[in-house]
Design a protein that fits this description.
By secondary structure, this protein is mainly alpha-helical. The protein contains 18 helices and no strands.
Length: about 700
């Protein structure tokens, strides 16, 4: 068995090397394209510098926080060092720091490639949709390959060095905590600029979305990168690592010492990475092709490749169970179905978006009411899908033996995230082509080029919505398996103390129900803190835009350039100020509930947090995407087109949806992962306090 595990360690390194080599090839391919427009090059540099400045200042704060948390882990987790194993505590602390580092590196490189690609995509749009699409997608694919490669590399190294799968939880916590703050900070930044730019530009002044006279327009483009590239990349890095971590912890607790099961987790993860490489290579679009169909086709290709490769591996390799393969396949197929249903509710070629656009012609109140209603409806298929996949995986795996039912759910999460390399590639494509659209307008490339860029951007909005639905669904399965990992950690502590183990959490127990109620409230308060952060920061930026238009002579006429850097600075300072309270609140509430009610209360807390969090995340992400594409549908000439009453109402809907879909919604799935990992790492302390 040990030899099999060593074999998969080697295969992990080989697959990571292939992914990194292919990412470097794609980076070099994109870099060969040239930017011939001096104005586009100038603005691209502003976007790049703004993104780098924000990330440098954000990472400085986050790494300070990370070292403080690492110190706490060393002194207190999993046991206070004076009564536990100092070496184990040290490894946990180092593993945590490695998780934050790998996540930060993937995000940083992704932003570097995205800011390099945007101007090149804008220029290539002059030649048609095909070259522009390939540049945008391949630029995004660099991020996708790096995220999955870094996650697999980090986990493999930790398993080799420590030989303890529970320490992977600390690595996952490092990735999750950085993702929580990076997604929140990037989301606040990007929506501060987006809301302010839309309200002052489109509604008040009647100017185009990316009119260079608007002082917030560059900050908006910067935000696309720090929010949707670095932030969303960190989010999906965290989801992938958390899914693998929970599967590995549960696998190691199973009857056969976990070696075959650990090998299966690594094998499927390796094949998922290779499937993403092959799927990215297969991405094609015709001369007059549809970019949305091209992106979806690549996703389906990757899915099919993964299912075939894992079936072959399960057939060939001894000890691999077809029931576990079935659980993994169910998770992946449900993920695809969630993506399809999300697409139905957010794609402007589908009836739901068109209905909201039609409602906008009667005023902004109808825009909001219809968007909220369809957003709630859209949560049902995804929630049902998560529930069905968990149930099927449980029932499929239960006959194998004790503990395998939860392992099956964990492998369903691994399966759903097996194609995450392709999903992140699609997601990073979105902000690249969004920036390209703005650069095409600011560079004066003409209406035909802008039309091509608009088509690419519309596809980007749709796939970003699908990505968010996919990541939230994956988080749902992951945290269910993390609940199982938490129970395993608690029982290990109880057994070592000679106490009775916990077989489950009874919601009729007042202590458990106390945890359920508190846990269910945390995502709502967490979301409100983030949205209020966007609100306060956007108000400051609106005031600055008004000041510049009122005091800078010649700005309205386009005779002078606005002070873009002032708006970037406002977004940066405000986002950094607002990102910390929301994240600390979620962690603090977890610890309070654990110290008051012990492990039983935390079991209820996690249950309430999962259900409430998934519902809110799906509702907000889908409503936001729906409002955004309703606005773009109207801007394409429908329902009166740009400048009409329907357009103004749709812009209001879009500004409400902006913090929903790009700040609070996608941050909640990271929040529920973080509190699950905090619970598992603090399990011994919760048990200790409940006893004494």
């Amino acid at each position: 068995m040990r030899e099999n595990l060593n074999l998969f360690f080697i295969l992990s390194f080989i697959s990571v090397a292939i992914a990194f080599a292919f990412a470097f090839y794609l980076y070099s391919w994109v870099k060969k394209a040239r930017v011939g427009n001096s104005r586009i090059e100038e603005v691209s540099i502003l976007i790049k510098d703004g993104a780098n400045t924000f990330m440098r200042r954000e990472y400085k704060i986050l790494f300070t926080f990370a070292f403080i948390v690492a110190a706490i882990i060393f002194f207190f987790l999993p046991h206070p060092f004076w009564i536990g194993n100092i070496k184990n505590n040290l490894m946990m602390a180092v593993s945590y720091l490695c998780g934050t580092f790998f996540s930060a590196v993937a995000g940083k490189i992704g932003v570097m490639v995205a800011t390099m690609s945007n101007g090149r995509v804008a220029e290539s749009a002059k030649e048609g949709i095909r070259p522009a699409f390939l540049l945008g997608f391949r630029g995004g694919s660099v991020m996708g390959l790096l995220v999955v490669g870094c996650s697999l590399l980090g986990i493999t190294l930790i398993l080799i060095v420590t030989g303890d799968s529970s320490i992977v939880l600390s690595f996952s916590f490092g990735a999750s905590s950085l993702a929580l703050f990076a997604k929140a900070g990037g989301g606040i930044f990007t929506k501060t600029a987006d809301v302010a730019a839309d309200l002052t530009g489109k509604v008040e002044l009647g100017i185009a979305e990316d009119d260079p006279r608007n002082p917030a327009v560059i900050a908006d483009n910067v935000g696309d990168n720090v929010g949707d590239v670095a932030g969303m990349g960190a989010d999906l890095f965290d989801s992938n690592v958390a899914a693998m971590a929970s599967a590995l912890v549960i696998a190691s607790s199973l009857a056969d010492t976990g070696l075959n099961n650990i090998s299966m987790v690594l094998c499927y993860s390796v094949l998922g990475l290779l499937s993403s490489v092959l799927g990215i290579m297969s991405a094609r679009i015709g001369k007059n092709g549809n970019p949305t169909k091209a992106l979806n086709s690549s996703t389906y290709t990757t899915t099919l490749i993964f299912l075939v490769l894992t079936a072959i591996a399960t057939y060939i390799l001894p000890g691999f169970s077809w029931r576990i393969w079935g659980s993994s396949a169910v998770g992946l197929l449900v993920g695809v179905i969630i993506g399809i249903t999300t697409d139905y509710f957010t794609d402007d070629s589908c009836p739901i978006v068109q209905k909201v656009a039609s409602a906008s012609s009667r005023g902004s109140a109808f825009t909001i009411l219809s968007g909220v209603s369809y957003g709630f409806i859209s949560a049902l298929p995804a929630m049902a899908g998560i529930a069905i996949s968990a149930l099927v995986a449980y029932k499929l795996s239960e006959p194998i033996g004790e503990g395998y039912a939860i392992f099956g759910i964990a492998m369903a999460a691994v399966g759903m995230l097996s194609i995450v390399g392709m999903i992140i590639s699609n997601d990073a494509y979105g902000p690249i082509v969004d920036n390209a659209r703005g650069l095409a307008e600011m560079g004066g490339l003409g209406e035909e080029t802008i039309k091509v860029a608009d088509e690419l951007d519309s596809a980007g909005n749709t796939v970003k919505a699908v990505t968010k639905g996919f990541s939230i669904g994956a988080a749902g399965l992951t945290v269910i398996s993390l609940l199982g990992a938490f129970l395993s950690e608690v029982n290990a502590v109880l057994e070592s103390a000679g106490l009775d183990i916990i077989t489950g959490f009874d919601i009729m127990d007042p202590v458990v129900f106390f945890g359920v109620l508190v846990g269910a409230s945390v995502p709502a308060v967490f979301s409100s803190l983030l949205i209020l952060g966007v609100d306060r920061n956007a108000e400051r930026m609106v005031d600055e835009i008004h000041r510049q238009f009122e005091t800078v002579k010649g700005l309205k006429e386009g005779q002078v350039s606005p002070d873009y850097e002032r708006c970037i600075d406002i977004a940066t300072i405000g986002a950094l100020r607002e990102l910390v309270p929301a994240g600390l609140f979620a962690i603090f509430m977890t610890l309070v509930v654990g110290f008051i009610g012990g492990a039983e209360a935390i079991g209820g807390f996690l249950l309430g947090n999962i259900v409430s969090g998934l519902l809110l995340a799906l509702f907000m992400s889908n409503s936001g995407g729906l409002w955004d594409n309703s606005k773009k549908y109207i801007e394409s000439g429908k329902e009166g087109g740009k400048g009409s009453n329907a357009h103004k109402a749709a812009v209001i809907g879009d500004t409400v949806g902006d913090p929903f879909k790009d700040t609070a919604g996608p941050s909640i799935n990271t929040q529920i992962t973080v509190v699950s990992l905090v619970s598992s790492l603090s399990a011994s302390l919760f048990v200790f306090f409940s006893i004494f």
